[in-house]
Amino acid sequence: MTHRSSKWSAPWPGENTLGGIVMKKAEEIRRIVRRGYARIAERGGSCCGSGTCSGTKPTALAKTVGYSEEELNALPEGANMGLSCGNPTALAGLKAGEVVLDLGSGGGFDVFIAGRKVGKRGRAIGVDMTPEMVSKARGNTASYTKQTGLANVEFRLGEIEHLPAADGSVDVVISNCVINLSPDKAQVWREVARVLRPGGRVAISDLALLRPLPAKIVKMVEALVGCVAGAVLVKDTERLARAAGLTDIVLTANPDYAAGMENWKDPVYRKIIRNLPRGTRAAEFITSLSVAARKPRRAGRRA
After folding, report:
1. What is the predicted pLDDT for the residue at 88?
2. What is the pLDDT of residues 163-207, one digit of tens each?
3. pLDDT band with cut points at 50, 70 and 90 for residue 17
4. SS3 sequence, 59-83?
């Protein structure tokens, strides 16, 4: 499903809501997420929770969302933790010499792939709010440089709502299953637009909702860290991107990702599925969503 003008009609969550339910304070949400991802960085795990989604190695999960075996084999050890729900580096169509910024870069998975694509004249920058993730990614940089001969990647500690990057300094913004975790998604999209150069583009993979989740799932901490409870409706993702000033927005849903959840052995997702309304399936609520967009070359231009 690819569309330019979304027809989803569920109500937009208000300023103090998350997935349609009154949410905890923003800092409490960040604390929960930071703690969960610190645990993943230190102990391993995937799927934004614990264990591996499919009961296999993270490599198998990455292949299901479009990463090639060549890309995965070239990664530093431990960079792939199975946290993907799409392949933004493929969507981005990265070119040599470009500057690319990854929101919520984790162990450096997409940054290391992007670094090879932009080459020695380009730069790949990762931003993550979890010190343990930034430390893990920086620890993998020497291996990347030794293997590629490139010194073109860096990792910065920071929140995606307040990106440590200058105005108009980036050609491409990518992100992989992260924006759904933010308690202030409107601010994230404004930051994306701010750091992009005129004509710059967005290539983001995330989880989104086809219909609102049941309240008891939204309230589950496991679902929040599992990249589900914080997701918003597909139409609201488009609305936020457009409100930030981005144009040429194309949303592509991949329902197969959520359908596969039913076969995953990850305890987080098993618990989510058990709490769905009787007779429903995960794919009726959740989808993996690819978002492509662009910053206008001229101020004031709107799609």
Report:
1. 83
2. 999 999 999 999 998 998 888 999 999 999 999 999 999 999 998
3. very low
4. HHHHHHCCCCHHHHHCCCCCCCCCC
In angstroms, what is the C-alpha Rg of the chain?
Answer: 18
Per-domain boundaries in the chain? 2-294
Q: List the beta bridge partners of residue 21.
A: 18
Q: Average pLDDT for residues 9-35, to the nearest whole number?
A: 50
The strand pair at 99-103 and 170-176 is best described as parallel
Write out the two tokens for 117: 């694509």
Alpha-carbon distance values, 292 to 39, 146, 200 (Å): 31, 33, 11
DSSP 233: B
Q: What is the pLDDT of residue 20?
A: 38
pLDDT band at 6 (very low <50, low <70, confident <90, very high): very low
In this structure, are residues 39 and 268 in contact, taking their beta carbons and an 8 Å threshold?
A: no
Give the number of other Cβ atoms within 10 Å of residue 55's Cβ. Answer: 11
2-294 under CATH 3.40.50.150, yes or no: yes
Cβ atoms of 190 and 244 closer than 8 Å: yes
Provide the residue type at 291 as one letter: V
CB 133 within 8 A of CB 38: yes
Helix locations, 173-291, DSSP H: 185-195, 215-218, 221-225, 234-243, 255-260, 267-274
Query: Exposure pattern of 2-25 as b/e (b: 16+ CB <10 Å)?
Result: eeeebebeeeebeeeebbbbebbe
CA angle 251, 195, 207 (to 5 degrees): 30
Which two three-digit tokens encode residue 148? 């590629």
Query: pLDDT category, 54, cuts 50, 70, 90?
Result: very low
Q: How much of the chain, in percent, has pLDDT values that exceed 70?
A: 66
